[in-house]
Structure formats: C-alpha cells, structure tokens
Request: fold
Amino acid sequence: MQKTLLATAVACGLLIGLPFDLAAQTAPSPQDQAQVQTLLAQLQALKASYAQQVRQLRELDMQVQALQARLAGKTAPGPLPAPANVPPAPEPQVAQAAPRTDEGGHAGSVAEAQAARQEAPTRSLKDALQQEHALFDRRFTLENSINYARYDRSQITLNGFLALDAIFLGNIAIEDVKSDSLTYDLAARYGVSPRLTLNLDVPYLGRKTVYQKGGAGGSAAAIAEEQTTGSGLGDIALSANYKLFAETDTRPDTVLTLGITAPTGQAPYGIDWKVIERDDDQYIRFAVPEKQPTGNGVWQANLGLSAVKTMDPAIVFANIGYIYSRPRDFGDINTDPQTVNPGSVKLGNTYYFGAGVAFAFNERTSLSLSFSDKLSAKAALRYKGSPWTKVIGSDANAATFNMGVTHALSQHTTLVSMLGIGLTQDAPDFTLSFKVPYMF
Reply:
C-alpha cells in the first residue's frame, strides 16, 4: 500500500513539472526577438523601396510611350502625362493598373502607349507609304527621282477590199511607233502642321520617238523611218495634303489631296509636222512632228482621296481621284507649217484609282505591290469660228501593275525603286523609277 501511494505521488509530480520544463525550453530569448524585429524592418524597407521604383518605372515608361505615339502622328500635340503621386503600397499591382488618358489625348497607361506604338508603321513602311499616301511627321523632305518609260505601238492599216472573201486587193501599211522618255523630278515636301503638308514637283523631260511605216505597193518590206526628239522643263505641279481622319482601330488614316498643274512644258499643239516621202516610191508618205512635247499644254486641277490602314506587319492603302483639264486657246493648233489656224483645245477629264499593300521585311526594307488605273475621256478641238470636234482615239485606259522596294540608306536618306508593268495598250510597256528622298 505504501509503495502504491509513493508511485502515485511521483507520477503526479512529474505531470505537474512537465509543462514548466517545456515552457522553459521554448521561450524565445531577448536576442532572438531583437533579430526577428530587425529582419522585419529590413523587409518592410525593401518592399517600400521596390514599390517606389516600380511606380517610377511605370510613370517613365508612360511618358516615353506617349512621346513616341505623338511623334508617330497617332496623338494630338499636348503636354506629356505628369508623374502621379501614388501612395506607397506594400504589394503594388503594376499589371492591373487602371488605364487612363490625359486631357491632351495621350496614352495614359502602359498598355495604351504600347498599343499606339504598335499601330505606328515602321521606318520601312513609312518610306513606302510616302510614295502612295502622305506623311505628316516629317518636317521637310527633298526628293530626287529619275523615271524611264518605254512605249512600243504597232498598227496595221489596210486600204483596199477583199475579193472572193479571201484575197485582199489594195495597200497594206505597217506603222510602228517606239518612244523612250527619261524624266528627272525634283520634289520638295514641307510639313506645315501635323495635318497639312505642301508639295512642289518640278520635272525635266527628255524624249525620243522613232516612227516607222511600210507597205509601199502592198509590200510590207519597203519601210521608211524617222526619229524626233524633245527635251525641256515639264509641267510644274503644286499640291497640298490634309489629314481628314487619323487612324483608329476601326477607321483608316484618310488624307485629302488638292493640286494644280501649270502648263510650263512645251505644248503638243502648234508644233509643225514634216512629211517623209521616198523618192523612188510615192506610196510611202507619212508625217511626223518636228520635235516632241514635254507637257500637256493646259491647266489641270486634281482632287484625290487616299486611305491607309495599318495591319502589322503590313499596311493596306487605296486612292481615288479626279483630274479636271481647263480648255485653253492657242494661236495655232494646225500641224501644217504653211498654215496658221488659231483655236482651242479641251483635254478629256481623267478619273484614277488604285490599291495596294506594303510589307516590312525589317526596320529598313519593305516591299509594296499595287494596281493603278487612269480613265481619260476624249479630247476636243475647236478652230476659231467652228464648233467643238472630238478627237477620235484620244480616250485612254492606262492600267499598271507596280512593284516597289524601299531601303533606308541612313537616318535621313532612303532609296525607293519602282517597276511598273503596263496592263493595257494605252499604258507604257514598262516604267522604271528610282527615288532618293532626303529628310531634314
């Protein structure tokens, strides 16, 4: 009995002393508590510094992106977004920052600024765009270009009748006209404002045309040939581009073009023609002009509308327009050097349209493919005291397929090459042009 009581007392003593022993073993020392407080303070300081740096980076990125969007012409001019005093946050949520826009229309968040930058075309696309549309973020551009065009037209003239529905009796005349023209054009483009650009084009032309005719006595072997040339200043053109609407997600960049062309070149009316005649065969007889003209000879006004939509990594463009030709009086519109007949000339008005696409290979090089067409009505002549008479065969449909490559040579200079292939008889067989715009 005494042993049982002694064992029970010892067990109770152990159970009572056990919690005190565990508490003594787990109680933190003052040194450990001080270390924990120091680490927590350092952690809070790092979090606060990180939050402040994130806010500064976000605000700086917004300012840079907004400035780039303004330079790309995507936003209206105005003050840059000012850094905002954001209260410190222990865990900043940069990716979930609410988009905002300032009063000037600039991007007010990183996402909007990046979207504006992505919509802006690259340097290579902008160089291609300037040839088909208009750019307003370039203060002044001076462009030198050389264009070569080749025409080759053949026509068979039958003067006679068919006998027994199979035999032709009469003269067969083969006429062939081959023309080469080289044009140097000096163009200046000045950006007056973010919505208005003025353009001046001054061309200088050199032309050579070879006329051939055969068919004396019904034989195509007898051929006469004559060559004429002409060179000089062409028709100077002055135009203005005005941006109607800036590009958005659902609307293309739309530009209105107004232009006027002055008849500064050599007019084709009143030029004397000379008669070519073979001494041994009087059947070969045709007339050719003494020199080639370098201009249209009349005042013209141009009204056009072009649109561009950015579809990264390409842009799609289209244009449509109308050219009005004002009638003009001349002291002599007769081709006979022995006769002087004053009169008036009225060229047919012209409608034109086109569309194409440009792809960027990289930041400096792009490729453009386009189709263009011009539809011209018949011209009319009126001798003094006579009614207007339409000129047969003066209407035209000139359709061309164009392929161009642009390459940025430096920060200010670009090389633009363009090949045009004629799709109709009234268009040149092919044209080849090289342009070098220099941006100041």
Q: What stands out?
A: Residues 33 and 39 are 10 Å apart (CA to CA). Confidence is low (pLDDT under 50) at residues 18-25, 74-80, 82-119. The chain has two domains: 24-79+109-120, 123-439. Residues 24-79+109-120 form one domain.
